[in-house]
Amino acid sequence: MKTHSGGLIIDQRGAPVAALPEEEFLAKDSELVACDVECRLAGIEGFYLQLDIPGLNEQIGGGP
């Protein structure tokens, strides 16, 4: 995963952890999407990205 994360995620005792302070890491939306895609293309499971998109539910009829 580290190879495909663009430096956002590192290995710490066999577990993936953020390489940046939390506030900075959370601001890397597009980089995290790219990491998710790269990991999936490489057959690496276990990385799941969920982004909150304000107003999306209302646009697709899913409620507030």
Structure commentary:
The longest helix has 13 residues. The protein has 64 residues and is an alpha+beta fold. The protein has one domain. A two-stranded antiparallel ribbon has the order 1-2. Helix content is 36%, strand content 12%.
Q: Regarding quaternary structure, how should these chains be classified?
A: single chain
Strand pairing plus helix content: what structural class? alpha+beta
What ranges have pLDDT less than 50 throughout 5 or more consecutive residues? none
Distance between the termini: 35 Å
Provide the number of structural domains. 1
**What characteristic shape results from the CA principal axes?**
globular
Number of separate helices: 3
Number of strands: 2
Mean pLDDT: 83
What is Rg? 14 Å
Work out the strand percent: 5-15%
The arrangement of helices and strands along the chain is: EEHHH
Question: Which range best describes the helical content: under 10%, 10-25%, 25-40%, 40-55%, 55-70% or over 70%?
Answer: 25-40%
The biggest sheet, with number of strands, parallel, antiparallel or mixed sense and barrel status, is:
2 strands, antiparallel
Strand order of the largest sheet: 1-2
